[in-house]
Structure formats: C-alpha cells, structure tokens
Design goal:
heterodimer, A: 335 residues, alpha/beta, 5-stranded mixed beta sheet, 10 helices, globular, B: 111 residues, alpha+beta, 3-stranded antiparallel beta sheet, 50% helix, 23% strand, elongated
Chain lengths: 335, 111
C-alpha cells in the first residue's frame, strides 16, 4: 500500500500554518513534505485581537497553502487523502478556514519527531497548560492550570514590559532572562538573584495569575527586567517540573515529552531534563518548527484518524472554541 | 401569518447576487459559506442558487447565480453581517482562483 498524504491547516491562534505530511499505514513511517507558517505579529505592548488575526489569516491563506503544496512537490492535489483542520479550541473568528483537536496533535507530532513511545506529556502553550498521560485510547489530563496558561502568563508580562512580539514574545523573554545568569561583562556565569514570587502548586494543578500580578508589581517598582524575567521563569518552570514529576511517579513512566510553544524554552527543557535524569529517564522536546502551532501536526493527527475510518461530512465541518484533550477518542493507538 | 411576523421582526433586507461560471463552483461556494452558522439571533439568512441545481447538471458548465438574502432587525446588524459575509466570500473566491484542482494542474503544466 502506498503512503497516504494529508494537508493540515492550523489557524486557531495567531499563527497560520499549513503543511503536507505522509504516513504509511504498513510501515508506520511518517514523512514531512512541507511545513509553512506565517505569524501575525502585533506591535509591542499589544496582544493579537481576534478580528485582526482573522484578517491576517484570510489575507495569507492562499499564498501559504500554495507554498505548502508547491514545497511538497505532489503531482496533483488529488493525491491528498484528506484535508485536516483545527476544530478547536481557539479563537472563533480565525478558525473559520477531518477536524483535529490541538493537544493530541501536538502529542502525536512530538511522539513522531522524538521517538518517545509512551511519555508523560507536558503541553505548555499560550492557551494550555496540561500534564497529560495516555491510558486506554484517551489522553488523560493529570493536572492543569487553574486559571491562565503559562504561555499567556509570559506573553502578558511581555506586554507589560512592551517586549517585541517578533518572532514571538516567549523567545524574546527567554533571551532577556538569560542575561540574569551572567555578570555585567556578559560572559562570566553567576547565580541569578531570585526575586520573591508566589509559588502556586495545588496538588496536581497550578496557578499563574498570582505570579503575573506579583511580577507586574515588581516591574512597576524596579528597572531590572532580566531579574524579574529570570525569577519568573525559574518559578513557573519549577512548578511545571514538580507536577510533571508527580504524574511520572504516578504512571511509572520515565519519559517526558514537552510540547506546545513554551516547550521550545531551553531553560524549561534543561530543568525538566535534570528532573528526568534523577529519575533515570530522559526528556524529549522538539524545536520551534514543531513545538509552535503548525499545519503538519494537524495533518498527522487527522491522517491517523482518517486511517481508522474517521470522516467529517462537509456540512459538519464546523469549529468550536471549547474542546477538551480527553474528549478525543485516540483510536489509532492500541497499546 | 408566519411570513408577516418574519418581515416585522427582520425588516432590513439585502440580497447579494454572486454569478459563478459553473454549477460546481456555485455549489462549492454555497456549501463553504453555509457551514459557518450565522452567530447573531438578530440576523437571518437564506442561500439559493438560480437557476436551481438539478441532479443532472452537476457537471455541466451552466452559469449559476448564488443568491444570499440577509434579513436583520436593524440596519446596523445587517451591515455587520453582510460585511463579514463579504470577507468570507472574498476568501472563497480567492481559493477558487488559486487553489482549485484544475488551476494547480494547469500551473504544474506551464512551469
């Protein structure tokens, strides 16, 4: 049997990503043929509004799709088995563009790229903070944020400090925070001064709004942006590592997979790696091409569902802003 | 009687007529636009294709017009709904122009 091809479209936040992916059901080999992304970057100090984001996606959809098809070098679009799009969750207006749900998509992509077979998954992005583990054809949520997502916390603090949104606020925050780990000469390493910030872990869940409030207050009082960013980073990442470790102990897994936009933060990967090494395991992470919302992750999860017989009639191809990770039946995994 | 109340409640009416060169394109446009439900309870809309599509002519090259009738409680709601419809319509037509199977095939031949 020849490999199957899918076109995946993701546009449920400020990134419009379209890609072509192939999967061979017999050999279970996955190949990425193209992965094109165009990001709506709002001016420093502002967030992306649904209306402007929708206009961005509409304006770029055709050119991004054409580039994805051209780069994939398919002989004809008729070779595509299915077109997959993000059903939810996300902002209503931009999503209007076989539906997939973002968390399982991120997870399947991470499993393929890193080769981790059954990890505990930390899904950290602008809209989600969840610790997830697979059991009996569902990705089950072990712990999650009680209020805002960790990425939202970082983005909003970046907005307070008017840090540029290009290429994305998390990257700029990470670069600024790194400065706190060096002396004024920029080369000699030192322990950063850690500012007192709330540490809000409640059982398997955590909370980020209090940290954001405290960081906003500190930002109004002092000028050392790098110290606040480094302190905030150490605190929120420690919280995430703690709840992930607890989930690993519970399910007896030694692998951690970090997915979602915040997952490309190298400090988070490093801290997670230290914890996993202590437990005799390892951390699996991908880079920004696959961590951040993209079309191929949607295409992959959609194609896997398609192979198990999942179809969506055209008149049912709607979007929803609310869609829980554990609502999706993971029919393609049998372990 | 029911029709009278409909006109009373939704007095502001605008019909958009979009001509398409083939039955297929007109049907594709209708299906893609209809799938996103009208979100406001203050606006009603109906889609029709004329001349009506029969089972026989789905592959014919007959010109068809897509009629979209918007009814709203106020002119303001009508404007908001039609503006957003126009944006979606614009994208649908752009996709037809650049991403339709025959367009891509023709492009692959010429390059």
């Amino acid at each position: 049997m020849a490999p199957l091809y899918a076109l995946g479209c993701e546009g449920s936040a400020n990134k419009l990503g379209i890609g072509v992916i192939s999967h061979d059901p017999e050999t279970n080999k996955t190949k990425i043929l193209s992965n094109i992304r165009h990001t709506f970057v709002s001016p420093p100090g502002t967030g992306f509004l649904p209306k402007d984001t929708a206009a961005h996606h509409r304006a770029h959809f055709v050119s991004v799709a054409r580039e994805a098809l051209r780069a994939a070098k398919l002989s004809s679009p008729k070779d595509l088995s299915c077109i997959c799009y993000t059903r939810g969750p996300g902002m209503g207006a931009p999503s209007r563009a076989s539906p997939s749900r973002r968390a399982p998509c991120h997870i399947e992509m991470g499993r393929v790229i890193t080769g981790a077979d059954n990890p505990v998954v930390l899904y950290v992005s602008g809209g989600n903070t969840q610790v997830i583990a697979y059991a009996e054809q569902r990705y089950r949520i072990f712990g999650e944020t009680l209020d805002i997502a960790v990425g939202n916390c970082i983005d909003r603090f970046a907005r307070t400090l008017a840090i540029p949104n290009d290429p994305f606020p998390g990257y700029n925050v990470e670069q600024l925070a790194k400065k706190a780990f060096f002396k004024a000469d920029g080369t000699t390493k030192r322990e950063p001064i850690l500012l007192d910030l709330p540490y809000a872990v409640k059982g398997m869940d955590c909370s980020f709004s209090g940290i954001l409030g405290a960081a906003d207050l500190l930002a109004a009082q002092m000028r050392k942006q790098d110290a606040i960013l480094a302190g905030g980073g150490e605190t929120v990442f420690a919280m995430l590592v703690e709840i992930t470790e607890r989930a690993m102990a519970h399910v007896g897994s030694k692998q951690v997979l970090v997915v979602g936009g915040v997952g490309c933060n190298e400090r988070l990967q490093e801290m997670m790696g230290l914890m996993a090494r202590d437990r005799g395991g390892s951390v699996y992470a991908t880079d920004e091409r696959f961590c951040i919302d993209n079309g191929i992750m949607i295409g992959l999860a959609g194609l896997l569902a398609w192979e198990t017989g999942f179809r969506t009639p055209f008149e049912d191809s709607t979007c929803t802003q609310r869609f829980r990770t554990d609502e999706v039946h993971i029919k393609w995994r049998t372990d | 009687m029911a029709a009278a109340t409909e006109t009373d409640q939704f007095p502001c009416v605008l019909t958009v007529q979009v001509p398409f060169p083939t039955t297929r394109l007109a049907s594709v446009a209708l299906q893609s636009l209809q799938v996103d439900k009208e979100l406001s309870p203050l606006v009603r809309r109906t889609f029709t294709i004329s001349p009506p599509v029969s089972d026989a002519d789905t592959t014919s090259d007959q010109e068809k017009t897509l009629h979209v009738e918007y009814r709203a409680t106020t002119n303001r709601m009508l404007r908001v709904a039609v503006n957003s419809f126009m944006e979606s319509l614009n994208l649908v037509i752009e996709v037809m122009e650049h991403l339709d199977a025959d367009v891509l095939a023709a492009e692959a031949h010429s390059s």
